[in-house]
């Protein structure tokens, strides 16, 4: 598996898109820091961008990589290699190179700005950690979609739909449920609802860490009670890890049964 | 070498292989022929473990291949469509495949044979179809495994490379290897193969030498013999 990982990582590190992605974050980081001059505000703006953009790039890149490398994957399948190691290697190659672009692209300007002396380092680290989680999650989901759909166009369609659903539509439905049942106690429901969507979960985690939960009103207080504690933090990270592990498991199982 | 018993495979509603039995002995060149969609590639891919059969048993060198990947050390496979990561250089691809399988020096001879030296530092994305096929051939033949499977080996090759390929296949046969070939070019098949395996509707319709096929169909030449099988069965 490590050999496959190494080669897909090298392959991606040489692709133009990795650099475009890296350069985008670099530029974003520089612009936000040096025009804004306020680290906390920059982190919030970054959060808004990351929460939407990272899943999108992860899904698109994952699906694209799978379909582009299909014939080569077939060549690998004819070699004495296990299927699970081929697909895990490729998946990790994509996810790690995307995470590297994110971490280096955002990290460098922050380091130069003087992050290590600032109190925002924890907020910033949390931002990068959730960003990496989101990359791992959405690349895994993308690989699942691509593995289950022979048809490229369909695969891309489902990938975009998935992103749209988790990024936008889910929130809408969630909000409607909350409004529709506002007469009932909803704290548990909203907590679970947040846990079930990795994008919402990441957003809530960062917002609460930034101590602006007052903006969230009453629910914010409940959330703060839950996510603000170590217990909540651990549960959230377990939920995020599950979001990585389950799709990866499904990926290995589907790949074992698939015909190429 | 390769034994297949009662192989069934369905893709959606389409039954591609329906109870195929085949046993291939050691040494020699076997051509797998059949009309489009008869299941040639599915058969090959089942042997390679890329397609998972619905029913049936395949053993390679006496071992059942189910849930096993080690036996593929004994097989060299040339896929029909060669498409490599476009960012890699030819040299790097060869190094990578060697790294994944085992070290060999055979590649130098093959690179020389197919005159690939000027392309070694070029990226795979910039190569023409024929050159890619040559790279593909180098990757296939460099490991010197006892079983070689070639899926449409002639596609995109110029006449000189075609001649070299024929010589190469003969030389591999001399070493006592078992070579399976699928091809649509009948003259190529007639020239290189020792035995024909003709697949029709997911079953073996005929297995034997070309002269046996000619007697069976009562046709003077190979191409007409094949054509007569097809017209008889698909008229």
Automatic annotation (TrEMBL), chain A:
The keyword Thylakoid does not apply. The keyword Transmembrane helix applies. Keywords: Membrane, Transmembrane, Transmembrane helix. It comes from the Bacteria. The chain crosses the membrane at residues 20-36, 42-67, 88-112, 124-147, 159-181, 231-249. This is Cu-processing system permease protein. The lineage of its organism: Bacteria, Pseudomonadati, Bacteroidota, Flavobacteriia, Flavobacteriales.
Automatic annotation (TrEMBL), chain B:
Residues 2-226 form the ABC transporter domain. It holds the Pfam family ABC_tran. The keyword Repeat does not apply. PROSITE patterns: ABC_TRANSPORTER_2. Keywords: ATP-binding, Nucleotide-binding, Transport. One of its GO terms (molecular function) is ATP binding. CDD domains: ABC_DR_subfamily_A. Gene3D superfamilies: P-loop containing nucleotide triphosphate hydrolases. InterPro entries: AAA+_ATPase (IPR003593), ABC_transporter-like_ATP-bd (IPR003439), ABC_Transporter_VariousFunc (IPR051782), P-loop_NTPase (IPR027417). The keyword Disulfide bond does not apply. Coiled coil: none annotated. PANTHER family: ABC TRANSPORTER ATP-BINDING PROTEIN ALBC-RELATED (PTHR42939:SF1). This is Cu-processing system ATP-binding protein.
